[in-house]
Design brief:
With about 425 residues, the protein is α+β, with helices and mostly antiparallel strands. Among the domains are: about 25-165, no CATH class; about 180-280, Dna Ligase, domain 1; about 365-430. It has 13 helices and 13 strands. A 5-stranded antiparallel β-sheet has the order 9-13-12-11-10, with no helix packed on it. The protein has a 4-stranded antiparallel β-sheet with strand order 3-6-4-5, with helices on one face. A hairpin with a 3-residue loop joins strand 12 and strand 13 (about 425-430). The longest helix is centred in the middle third of the chain and has 22 residues, at about 190-215.
Length: about 425
């Protein structure tokens, strides 16, 4: 059986014990898929153009310095398409028309390109076949004047663009600003385990799109479609830190999916990235491990020192807890624009729109304790030995007035504490240092 055969021919050639299954082509979905792939290929070039029905052209002259060679860039682009389930053939040439001709025919030389791979009219192909001409190289050896007289100016224009003798401008695409894809299933799925593979496919596409756009996502929304639009189920997935990894998205989605009820028959799966952030790669220090008491020896850090905590690992741990226990089970601290220490922080649910954590907003170490008394406790000055201070904390008069002088002190019990004095001479114990 060959491509282009009729449906009747296909049925006649199909085995009796293996009935033929056929699907109608959806040109709108094919065009949308081509635009999506072109947006992903934008990571390899700043100039990407569409060539319907099934080709994309990239201007790669400015990308060679990044990828090193034509072959390396070709292999990376083909690997990206194959990872998403597409068979791709990439070729490089001096002009867009020549690159398209080579890719569509699979040839490595313009001389060997079959005429059937070129955008020629059927009547012209038949005339060339009657003349015994089947490859582009044979046509290029013919006099152009005679070709123009017999085949017209359109053919000459195509040959000039193939050889780079005429301009071949292309309209570059604008990459999509949002990710929203839907996968329609050939058969309805009735168990959650069967949903993992199509969900993974959408997550792989999302990860590639985020990489191409240099973005990270903190909120995803899954849609599980059924026969009735009213039965569609939405599953939001929130992460405490922007992610690009399909694996990170899959782990949290799987945990939350296990806690949800889905339609009896799932006919389609949609995925949308709802909250995006500019992606900043995590910077690594020169030495993964902290310095021990012995410092450096031979240019290496102390092997027995404790490793620094990795923010990505902590974020993943928090996301898993939230997915297992619910969004209300995990909270994080953030700073508030208040002068009084007891009102300068708050708690927000993980995945909400709260400001960044207090430690991230205040990277410099503060001479303040983590353990605060609510409310502060009166204390006698004779019970304290003042060590450092004062630190003046004063709020606006129209708010809840605060006018305090804070000191780091040593309590008579030997504990290091944080105390303050309010005019005229009242002393309060506000917290202990660890």
């Amino acid at each position: 059986m060959q491509i282009g055969s009729t449906l009747a021919t296909a049925h006649s050639l199909a085995a009796a014990d293996a009935p033929l299954e056929h699907l109608h082509a959806d040109t709108d979905q094919e065009a949308a898929r081509l635009r999506f792939l072109a947006g992903l290929l934008y990571r390899f070039s700043g100039e990407v153009s569409l060539e319907p029905p099934a080709a994309v052209v990239l201007e790669i002259g400015r990308s060679l310095r990044l990828f090193g060679s034509f072959s390396a860039l070709e292999q990376a682009a083909v690997a990206l398409c194959e990872q998403l389930g597409h068979h791709a053939c990439a070729r490089t040439a001096a002009t867009p028309s020549a690159a398209l001709a080579l890719a569509r025919s699979g040839s490595r030389s313009l001389q060997a390109v079959p005429l059937a791979s070129l955008p020629l009219e059927t009547k012209h192909l038949e005339r060339f076949a009657n003349m015994g001409l089947h490859t582009l190289g044979q046509v290029l050896h013919l006099p152009s004047r005679e070709l123009g007289q017999r085949f017209g100016r359109t053919l000459l224009g195509l040959l000039e663009r193939l050889q780079g003798n005429a301009p071949d401008p292309r309209s570059s695409i604008v990459p999509p600003a949002h990710f929203s894809e839907c996968l329609h299933l050939l058969e309805p799925l009735r168990c959650k385990e069967a949903l993992e593979q199509p969900m993974q496919r959408l997550l792989d596409e999302l990860a590639q799109w985020l990489t191409a756009q240099q973005l990270g996502a903190t909120v995803l929304v899954w849609r599980f479609l059924s026969h009735h639009p009213d039965a569609t189920v939405r599953l939001p997935v929130r992460l405490s830190k922007a992610q690009q990894s399909a694996r990170a998205f899959a782990d949290i989605s799987r945990l939350q999916l296990a806690r949800m009820a889905l339609p009896e028959d799932v006919l389609g799966i949609g995925l949308e990235a709802c909250r995006l952030e500019p992606w900043v790669n995590q910077s690594l220090t020169l030495f993964r491990y902290g310095l021990g008491n012995g410092g450096l020896s031979g240019g290496l850090a102390d092997r027995h020192a404790q490793p620094h905590a990795e923010p990505a690992e902590l974020a993943g741990f928090v996301d898993q807890l939230t997915a297992r226990l619910g969004i209300a089970a995990c909270t994080h601290l953030h700073s508030l624009d208040q002068h009084a220490p007891e009102r300068a922080w708050g708690a927000h649910r993980t995945g909400s729109t709260a400001p960044a954590a207090f430690a991230a907003e205040n990277p410099a170490p503060l001479r303040r304790p983590l353990w605060l008394f609510t409310p502060p406790r009166p204390v006698a000055l004779e019970d304290l030995r003042l060590l450092e201070g004062p630190e003046r904390v004063q709020s606006n008069w129209w708010a809840e007035a605060v006018n305090r002088d804070y000191y780091i002190a040593e309590h008579k019990s030997g504990a290091r504490c944080w105390a303050y004095r309010e005019p005229p001479a009242a002393w309060y114990l506000h917290g202990y240092f660890a």
